């Protein structure tokens, strides 16, 4: 190990030199400037430097070294117990601060620690942590094996949990990770250790987190990601995990987000909701065109339009992975353009503006999951507006309600809710189109149908009790009340009048 002692007192330099191992190569300088000149010709592993020296003091020497990008280990020695000096020294990333007179035991201990750090640095320079992290994400290590390897590499092997991430850099090649790593680490809080590395043609990262909750960690990483976006750097994180055994699964999650996030500007954390179930194989261009046309043709009338949209986005998910974002984006632009045409054709001008804005905003949606949700919401809005603007409701809905009433009026518990169940439209919307079509509420229509049936039964000579039962009244007295409220006569009075006088029902 090459050790440089920098001190303006010759006796001090000699005394320290004698304490060092005979296997070490010892160099001396009596000020900072002399030390810098020596280091231009000789590789130094460890510097032991005084602070107060003529020409150039120790702190200025360290500052210039760090400014040149030198990461040489430094131990500061001083006869002054001044905290200000210590603060400045720490700022320049020195490994320790010793007060004179130097304790031989303490010095030997620091030298040995420095020797271990240098060995670890040499190992990292030779092998790097990049191969280790790639092997970890490939599943080559158990949790215990990974921790041991991290110890050798001087990586943080004490953490609460970690997340894997991927990087995309807008409009640029991201093969050079140095500016990315620097940009991210400058904003990284002390409770998160971040490592950036190349993984194939992509840039990956691992964040080791300690002493904060997962929600707090997610919030901090989100803030970092938002700052990174200012530099065109976009991050996608896996879910959190405690065990390094699961690193391959976390890698797949983060990579999934990277692949399934369209266009260029998003940050996200993986959750189960992000999964878009892919189909077994990609559609041909003709098959995809047919699917889009089917959606456009049926979007105003088909109650099962959601399943078609799900199918489309499953295809788009695979397309983004296999063919790239550009082709996927083209499909969505085609769909958006045609939806706008449908909107202009069927929706009133005063109502077009808001939804036109939303359609234009869809061009800037960044991921498939959000795009699908917005697409469904716009289609459902169009369906509702189309029906309400045309006043005349779907005959299928109206006829279904009427049929259910005719078939179930004999059930005393049959209600309005039973008549509309499963129609896949909001209750308020169904009630609205029914009342507009029939001129009465569904409840009033049920009463009307029951009374019309009662008139028919009573006219045939059916008893009041049997009539009540056949139209859904288990309580004869309550039937009589409802009948009188409806026609102004009791069932018996109406029956007698119509049988004896052969009069038609008064409606």
Describe this structure in words.
It is a single chain. Helix 12 packs antiparallel against helix 13 (325-346). A 5-stranded parallel β-sheet has the order 2-1-3-4-5, with helices on both faces. It has a 5-stranded mixed β-sheet with strand order 7-8-6-9-10, sandwiched between helices. The model is unreliable at 263-267 and 272-280 (pLDDT under 50). The radius of gyration is 40 Å and the shape is elongated. It is of the alpha/beta class and 507 residues long. The protein contains 22 helices and 10 strands.
Structural topology:
Layout lengths: L1 E5 L3 H10 L5 E5 L2 H8 L6 E5 L7 H10 L5 E6 L4 H9 L4 E4 L4 H24 L2 H8 L5 H10 L8 E9 L8 H8 L6 E8 L2 E8 L4 H16 L3 E5 L9 H14 L7 E2 L15 H14 L6 H18 L2 H22 L2 H14 L5 H22 L5 H14 L7 H5 L6 H12 L3 H18 L4 H7 L5 H12 L3 H11 L6
Parallel strand pairs: 1-2, 1-3, 3-4, 4-5, 9-10
Antiparallel strand pairs: 6-8, 6-9, 7-8
Q: Outline of this structure?
A:
The chain is an alpha/beta fold and 507 residues long. It is 56% helix and 11% strand. The chain has four domains: 123 residues, Rossmann fold (3-Layer(aba) Sandwich); 138 residues, 2-Layer Sandwich (Alpha-Beta Plaits); 105 residues; 107 residues, Homeodomain-like (Arc Repressor Mutant, subunit A, Orthogonal Bundle).
């Amino acid at each position: 190990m090459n050790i440089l002692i920098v001190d303006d007192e010759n006796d001090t330099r000699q005394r320290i030199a004698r304490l060092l191992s005979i296997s070490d190569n010892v160099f001396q300088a009596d000020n900072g400037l002399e030390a810098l000149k020596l280091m231009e010709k000789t590789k130094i592993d460890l510097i032991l430097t005084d602070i107060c020296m003529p020409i150039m003091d120790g702190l200025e020497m360290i500052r210039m070294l760090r400014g040149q990008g030198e990461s040489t280990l430094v131990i500061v020695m001083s006869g002054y117990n001044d905290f200000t000096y210590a603060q400045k020294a720490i700022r320049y990333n020195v490994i320790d601060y010793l007060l004179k007179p130097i304790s031989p035991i303490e010095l030997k201990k620091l030298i040995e620690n420095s020797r271990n750090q240098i060995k670890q640095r040499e190992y990292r320079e030779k092998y790097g942590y990049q191969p280790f992290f790639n092997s970890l994400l490939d599943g080559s290590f158990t949790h215990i094996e990974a921790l041991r390897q991290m110890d050798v590499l001087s990586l943080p092997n004490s953490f609460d949990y970690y997340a894997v991430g991927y990087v995309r850099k807008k409009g640029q090649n991201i093969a050079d990770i140095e500016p990315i790593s620097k940009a991210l680490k400058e904003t990284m809080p002390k409770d998160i250790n971040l490592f950036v590395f190349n993984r194939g043609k992509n840039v990956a990262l691992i964040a080791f987190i300690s002493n904060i909750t997962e929600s707090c960690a997610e919030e901090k990483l989100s803030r970092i990601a938002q700052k990174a976006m200012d530099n065109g750097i976009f991050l996608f994180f896996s879910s959190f995990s405690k065990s390094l055994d699961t690193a391959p699964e976390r890698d797949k999650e983060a990579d999934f987000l990277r692949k399934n996030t369209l266009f260029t500007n998003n940050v996200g954390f993986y959750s189960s909701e992000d999964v878009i179930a892919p189909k077994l194989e990609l559609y041909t261009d003709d098959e995809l065109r047919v699917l889009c046309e089917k959606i456009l043709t049926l979007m105003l009338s088909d109650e099962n339009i959601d399943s078609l949209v799900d199918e489309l986005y499953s295809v788009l998910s695979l397309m983004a992975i296999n063919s790239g974002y550009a082709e996927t984006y083209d499909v969505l632009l085609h769909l958006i353009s045609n939806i706008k045409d449908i909107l202009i054709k069927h929706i009133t001008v005063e109502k077009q503006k808001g939804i036109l804005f939303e359609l234009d905003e869809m061009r800037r949606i960044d991921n498939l999951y959000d795009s699908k949700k917005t697409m469904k919401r716009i289609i459902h809005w169009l369906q509702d507006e189309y029906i309400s603007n045309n006043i005349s409701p779907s005959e299928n809905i109206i006829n279904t309600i009427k049929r259910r009433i005719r078939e179930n009026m004999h059930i005393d518990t049959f209600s309005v809710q039973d008549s509309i169940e499963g129609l896949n439209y909001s209750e308020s919307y169904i009630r609205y189109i029914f009342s507009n079509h029939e001129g009465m509420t569904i409840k009033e229509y049920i009463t009307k149908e029951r009374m019309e049936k009662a008139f028919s039964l009573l006219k045939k000579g059916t008893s009041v009790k049997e009539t009540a039962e056949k139209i859904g009244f288990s309580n004869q007295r309550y039937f009589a009340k409802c009948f009188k409220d409806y026609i102004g006569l009791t069932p018996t009075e109406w029956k007698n009048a119509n049988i004896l006088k052969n009069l038609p029902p008064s409606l």
